[in-house]
Amino acid sequence: MADLNELSEKLGGIKAEIKEELSKLETSKSVFEYKKAIFDSKAGKVGSLMREMGKIPNEMKAEYGKRVNELKNWAQEKFDEMDAKFKAEEMRLKYESEKIDVTMPGQVRKQGFLHPNTLVRNRIVDIFGSMGFEIFEGTEIETDYYNFTALNTPDDHPARDMQDTFYLSDKFLLRTQTSAGQIHVMEKEQPPIKIISPGKVFRSDDDATHSPMFSQMEGLVVDKGITLCDLKGMLDEFVQKIFGEGVSTRLRPSYFPFTEPSVEVDVSCFQCHGKGCKLCKGTGWIEVLGAGVVNKKVLEGCGIDSDVYSGFAFGIGIERIAMLKYGINNIKHLFESDLRVLEQIRE
Ligand code: PHE
């Protein structure tokens, strides 16, 4: 560098170039990139000026340093200015694009809910759970022995015709009733026994009130001195909890091979309170479940002394209760998963 004039010219040139370049930039990012390049200590037009100090004659060094610093400071200020300007604009655009119109209608998200069958099953489990019943869960594939023979329904017994059975082989079948669970429990445990057993059951049956697959809740109590009165008292409590205060039960003679005596249990109509309506078909009563005193033959077959112990059992159809409780007139509605139907049933 020969003299200060030459230096002035060179620095002036750099300054003009920076001004020119900056006028072309449009984003804070490009300002950042440009600044990095300019200040680069090796290749940068401003950054490299300090490295040239060695080549400057001694008497010029002080002035050279001062002017280079001035240029650096000037450039830094320019970059800061541009950076602030672009950033402000960029933030403005970002806020603009993210603006929320709070007057727009919201997106309606559908809320999940429990299926009526699940609601009824949970409710029944809660009610009997609060009475001290334990839960036993059996299997859907059963042997002929547990589903029929041990329940006092041997091979040639006419009661086998009461339920159309899906046989899987000579020995195995899809259980037709949760009563099979009674035998499993009584084989394993000695009284006192107090269990409920929920589950799916299968019968070759298909119309508006019957489905080839449906759900039952079995109940079994075995202890000293258990009678039909205990069953009736417990059922009265149960129907009030499920259908509402003020309803009661009535027992009608019936037949099941594994209970003696056997009963059909009716509940007084919770819609018309006995006056007679469409739901109870004008009778004031609605059939809700089958029950009875456990047949002595069944107790003995499971190794329980029937002179010491007695028991009662009952079997509730979950879908039947759900249909009554929620006014559903076709059992298929409970299996079709049609949201137009299911959405009407909330608890
Ligand atoms: N298992 C019988 C049925 O499915 C119902 C029942 C259970 C009856 C327990 C008496 C005792 O029809």
Overview of this protein structure:
Helix content is 39%, strand content 19%. With 347 residues, it is of the alpha+beta class. It has two domains: 4-98, no CATH class; 116-342, Bira Bifunctional Protein, Domain 2 (BirA Bifunctional Protein, domain 2, 2-Layer Sandwich), CATH 3.30.930.10. The strands form two sheets. It has a seven-stranded mixed beta sheet, sandwiched between helices. The protein has a two-stranded antiparallel sheet with strand order 2-3. α1 runs parallel beside α3 (58-97), α2 runs antiparallel to α3 and α4 (116-130) crosses α9. The model has no long low-confidence stretch (mean pLDDT 91). Bound molecules: phenylalanine. The site of phenylalanine has 11 residues, from β8 and β9.
